[in-house]
Specification:
Elements (H helix, E strand, L loop, with lengths): L1 E5 L8 H14 L4 E5 L5 H5 L4 E5 H7 L12 E5 L10 H12 L6 E5 L6 H8 L3 E6 L5 H18 L4 E10 L4 H13 L9 E2 L2 H9 L9 H22 L6
Parallel strand pairs: 1-5, 1-6, 2-4, 2-5, 3-4, 6-7, 7-8
Helix pairs in contact: 3-4, 4-5
């Protein structure tokens, strides 16, 4: 099982959109997928409503044990979020999180959505992960958030040397706004080797898909068609990177 953690220590950057649509696209490609919701806001649980539920992330973190999963090809199995998931930096929470996530099996991929903080649960996920992917929003102070993400990756790499950083994915991007175009150029100039050459734009279709638990291709609007094409382009890039077993770091 390849485990991909979607992480950023800032909220509202589109982590859940990326996580849910990656899960749907992987299943559409014939893979079996476990989607793990580690965020107390339970946004991934909402975005994957209607999928089979195989357990609770709080039970995992509390016990240090992963639920037994046997996902079928083309199926997404959800481990649901819980409002009581701890956001502490407690070492025991980190240990149990890492232990339970390392024990996950029974599917080709595990996509992990996380809260907007580098808590013990998030570090535990990264300790047991194969890949880290970071959506970033191109707003004011974005550079501060990027620096925190990169710093966290290098800290984790000291413990988990096999983890690869897939990169920084511009997300909720509004190309109409000059401020966001300028920020993208600034981030690209300072982190050129880390920017994924695709962007997830700020489109109504993604909100509709998340609210209804839909694959973006099921949103039958003009916005949905454009969003489906752009996410497919990112997904093709993602597949190639993971198939080659490497990231941008």
């Amino acid at each position: 099982m390849k485990k991909i953690v979607i992480v950023n220590n800032k909220g509202g950057v589109g982590k859940t959109t990326v996580a849910s649509q990656l899960a749907f696209h992987l299943a559409e490609s014939g893979f079996s997928v476990v989607a793990l919701d580690l965020d107390g806001q339970r946004n991934l649980t909402t975005a994957l409503q209607g999928q089979k539920v195989a357990g609770s992330s709080l039970d995992m973190i509390s016990s240090g044990e992963a639920p037994e999963i046997a996902a079928e090809q083309g199926e997404v199995v959800l481990i649901s979020g819980d409002a009581d998931i701890p956001v502490s930096t407690d070492d025991e929470v980190l240990r149990l999180s890492a232990l339970s996530i390392a024990g996950l099996d029974g599917a080709d991929f595990c996509i992990i959505d996380t809260p907007p903080t580098f808590s013990a649960v998030v570090y535990g996920a990264l300790v047991s992960a194969d890949y880290m992917l970071s959506p970033i929003e191109l707003k004011r102070f974005s550079l501060d958030g990027v620096e925190g993400v990169v710093k966290a990756f290098f800290q984790i790499q000291e413990i988990n040397p096999d983890i690869a950083f897939l990169g920084l994915l511009p997300s909720r991007y509004d190309a109409v706004k000059k401020s966001e175009r300028d920020m993208l150029r600034l981030v690209a100039s300072q982190y050129a080797e880390l920017i994924i050459p695709h962007a997830i734009h700020n489109r109504v279709a993604y909100e509709a898909a998340g609210a209804e638990g839909l694959h973006i291709k099921e949103v039958n609007t003009a916005s949905g068609k454009v969003a489906a094409a752009e996410f497919q382009a990112f997904f093709d890039w993602f597949r190639e990177a993971v198939d080659e077993g490497k990231g941008l770091l």
